[in-house]
């Protein structure tokens, strides 16, 4: 209920999709325009990360209002109630409790009237859907597999939706116990739901009665849970898809979760749905973010992004962005804490989710070979007495006539390098500084980004901090001024100590950097660097290598202007894009080349 302005962020569902425009007159609009479903990744907000199952109608509509006002202009249009909207919020009820659900006489879940007062009188979600539509948004709900254990235990009759009465076949009325597959209970909610036998016409009649009701309520999006990944129920997916295909209002079909999903498994269902998760639940830990990189690459390489889907396209879904004001999984509480991801990690997540959407064919994953991650950040800056021969390891390396690097131990296969520049000591009043710092250097982590190697004694320099914090905005500060001696030592103007850059022992295994490249509608190129390392890493890509993955671009002799989205820095280059990327952080360059 206490929605801060930031709150809505938590719910960014990067549902990786979007959808056609709002259809107020479903049958007509749908038939006349035959708009492709999910022609781009549907985006919106889902209540789960902030409310778990506990959200009320009032809270939901407040969030919808924020989505409508603030996010709709950016293409977010779905608002989705996540699971257990039919569970009474009373003492004893929790995510796997039994017996607290509100079901109708046909064993179908209906909204808990305590939390969804507009549903009273058999109206279901109609009024909520109307309100959401009047905000210019689309309305989605979460549903579980099959039938609830509660309906099964009550052995409710099955509705024949066409007749509006009990389903009768071979002269007998069919009931929940005839169709429920108790041995196929949802593994992670065993007191909740079980599959139904879709080989029986009665089982199909039950599923049909559910989805026809959702359509009547005005639902535009269904997230079907516990049917995919480790919980795969291909029969239910296939039948639900058939029902949705015949509806006269478009309902996007989304599957969840996606634990252990491979492109091969996804290929079996992608044509039947519009979205399907490709990982387990994503929460606000770096480990969860990290687990998305390989699988996203695999789905991109398998050309699964924007493949054919139900009445349109289908999209691998990386799950929600757990940003902003959150709750915890399995909780009975609403939002009460902020995301545990730091700002760099949040940007990486947002950037990967955005880059993964492929609106044009030309986009490809840059292989790691192209990204030339430089492991500068894996080396600790040491300060030692200049008398120590160990310090004599620096030498100059000219990239072109204007650009020089200073590299540590040239013989290394990937020597860590810094970019050399004269400190900016221009104006007249600074004569005294000019004299004092004649011959000194600023050492930049990357060309064109104003971050300078800083030997400030306020920082702990001997640890991994070197990566995380020893580059600070360039300024006229003796801690940032360095002199290269003929014997290869690099002396700091403030302390008189000399720098070394020795390998940090790395517990986290091999160094990992990733690059993604994409093209935009106006011919611009998006180049993303992700630093998965626990220390700052300088990453670079040669324009010639960028051209190799965009073979339709001849980059010979071109020069590119770039704008880095997260830092706001701009510049130009003819050969190399290079930047120091924070631990777990990313950079996103927009290149326009001529
Ligand atoms: C390297 O040169 C500097 C400046 O001439 C000198 O102070 C330092 O002692 C030399 N280091 C070694 C190890 O010879």
From TrEMBL:
One Pfam short name: Melibiase_2
CDD domains to which the protein is assigned, alphabetical: GH27
EC number: 3.2.1.22
InterPro entries: Aldolase_TIM, GH, Glyco_hydro_27, Glyco_hydro_b, Melibiase_C, Ricin_B-like_lectins
GO molecular function: alpha-galactosidase activity
Record keywords, A-Z: Glycosidase, Hydrolase, Signal
Reaction(s) this enzyme catalyzes, per UniProt: Hydrolysis of terminal, non-reducing alpha-D-galactose residues in alpha-D-galactosides, including galactose oligosaccharides, galactomannans and galactolipids
Domain (Alpha galactosidase C-terminal) ranges: 512-591
Signal peptide stretch: 1-23
EC primary class: hydrolase
Record GO biological process: carbohydrate metabolic process
Protein family per UniProt: Belongs to the glycosyl hydrolase 27 family.
Protein name: alpha-galactosidase
